[in-house]
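One such shown below:

_____
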Amino acid sequence: MNQQDRIGEITAPLLHWYAKNKRVLPWREDKNPYHIWISEIMLQQTRVEAVKGYYARFLERLPQVEDLAEVGEDELMKLWQGLGYYNRARNLKKAAEMIAGEYHGRFPEEYEELLRLPGIGEYTAGAIASMAFGKPVPAVDGNVYRIYTRLFADGSDIMQGKVRKRIREEIKAVVPEKCPGEYNQAWMDLGAVICLPNGAPLCRECPIRTWCLAKERGDMTVFPVKASKKKRKVQDRTVFLLEYQGKYLIQQRPEKGLLAGLWEFPAQEGRLSPEQLRLFLEKWNVDADGVELLGSGKHIFSHVEWHMIGYLVHLKQMPQELQEGMVLSSVEQIQKKYSIPSAFSLYLDEIFSRKK
């Protein structure tokens, strides 16, 4: 049996399983393309259970695509805070502006048109086109690559573009015209709850185990094969919580680069000792009324790791001149207005706990 026939044969049992076991998710309650789009972008790199709360808050504030097109960036970043990869939120707004302008508020239905929108790639375009508009196109994500490579014991490197293209083309040929959205979601759900990425897959519960070559050979966890990533660069950073009369100095990051345009506590490269901290504060011309060591934290980005140590510095008076982009903010303002990324969650928790 060739691969095309094998994929075709699993369609019926896969859809039958999905009809009985599909996950109940808020963005599946209707076929609204705006809802599907927002959920799919949020679900990138984030667990389903974690996304539900963000999704509800986002739609409560921005229920229509026109609302997203008009929202200010600071508010958008605050709504996105905690989901990471903030350029995804910026691309959402850019795409919403295109939909509101070029398409007069109506979502484009065709796969090729969806690909024109900023931040929408082949998977997301396939998900929206099939789930919202019933277009017979595939939506191939990590779940599908994992199931496919196990199904055929395929040792190809799924990080290679030519391998991904081949898999998408093979699945595209068998997407059922009558229920493409359900078909794509069946693959997603099977990968999410049965053909698991970490640890042993639940093969006994799998509706397509009879066709699975990796199951037959007993080497399911070998697949998928991915080329090893480059080792992340480690950066030491010292974070300063500069407090004056219950308020904290925060600053906006540059408009380009890592965490562009977001807010943060002032920081210095390197791991400063208490003595080095004292010299640094003198150089900055600030007088401290007391210094507390807050401990160490670590945050992992895709290409770099921050290893941080934090100090709470109680200021006797405000610095005479603030650095550009720096403001003195209350805890309430930080909570409601300023988007501080989760990299600083350890230190955010510190000031929030002191507020109580």
About this structure: The first strand starts at residue 233 and ends at 244. The chain has two domains: 3-222, 233-355. The CA atoms of residues 85 and 259 lie 8 Å apart. The beta strands are 233-244, 247-252, 263-264, 267-269, 288-300, 304-315, 326-329.
